[in-house]
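Incident log, structure service

09:12 report received: a user says their structure output differs between two submissions of the same chain.
09:20 pulled the input from the user's history:
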Amino acid sequence: MIQRIQSIYLLIAAVISGGLTFIVSLWTNAKATTIFSMDLFSGVSMFEKMTPILFFISALLSLVTIFLFKNRQLQFVLGRLNILINLFLLVLLIYLSQTLSGEALVSEKGIGMFFPIIVILLLVIANKAIKKDEDLVKSVDRLR
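09:34 re-ran on a clean worker, output below:
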């Protein structure tokens, strides 16, 4: 049900996690090489390879959550799980940006580093709307 406001928030979160992270750069290193999320698959550490996978899982989970509109409790739980995934992704991106080789020189962080924060905010707003719908349904059931 795309007409519900939480579906719009979840769709925007899915687009940011699934699409924009592969278009917008995460950072530019000291050699002026722009690093995208897909470039991290060729990294040497497990953390670098995990980053694009977590972006994809977050986008997929947001899309699945949209279509669970009949089960609001599960929708709420999946929203919280997605928030935790994005918090872990944010910590992972901060760790990677601080431990990159050549970070003693100045490097430029891209807007892609802030995408987990934006997605977390969208998911929190979506969860509030889901909770509001659940409370409304419970109040109507009480009146019967």
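09:41 both user submissions now match this output. Likely a transient worker issue. Closing.
09:42 reviewer note: The longest helix spans residues 115-143. The chain is about 65% helix and 5% strand.
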